[in-house]
Amino acid sequence: MEPSPRPSFEPAGAGGLLVATTVVLLAIGALVGWALGSAGVGAVAGAAAGIPAGIFAVYRRYRGYFS
Questions:
Q1: Model pTM?
Q2: Residue 1 falls within a domain, yes or no?
Q3: DSSP letters of 5-50?
Q4: Burial state string for 33-55 with b = 16 or more CB within 10 A and e = fewer than 16
Q5: How would you class 8 by CB atoms within 10 Å of its CB: exposed for 0-12, middle for 13-18, buried for 19 or more?
Q6: By residue range, what is the domain housing residue 29?
Q7: CA-CA distance, 43 to 50, in Å (whole number)?
Q8: What is the per-residue pLDDT across 2-43, written as a single tens digit (0 to 9) for each?
Q9: How many CB atoms sit inside 10 A of residue 19's CB?
Q10: How many domains is the chain partitioned into structurally?
Q11: SS3 call for 30
């Protein structure tokens, strides 16, 4: 039996996933903030939530590479 090949790490893919997750949560935060009266505050809150969510998404996608 051959060992399974190690998954490849794609830095551009990881960066794209990080940016996409952050932008999606930023946009959701801006929409919620706009509905509540302040899109700017909502966008900041969305970005604050989006950065750790993006890091988690990258970790989940590439977790086999890090172990």
A1: 0.81
A2: no
A3: PPPPP-HHHHHHHHHHHHHHHHHHHHHHHHHHT-HHHHHHHHHHHH
A4: beeeeebeebbebbbeebeebbe
A5: exposed
A6: 18-66
A7: 10
A8: 666 666 788 899 999 999 999 999 999 999 999 999 999 999
A9: 12
A10: 1
A11: helix
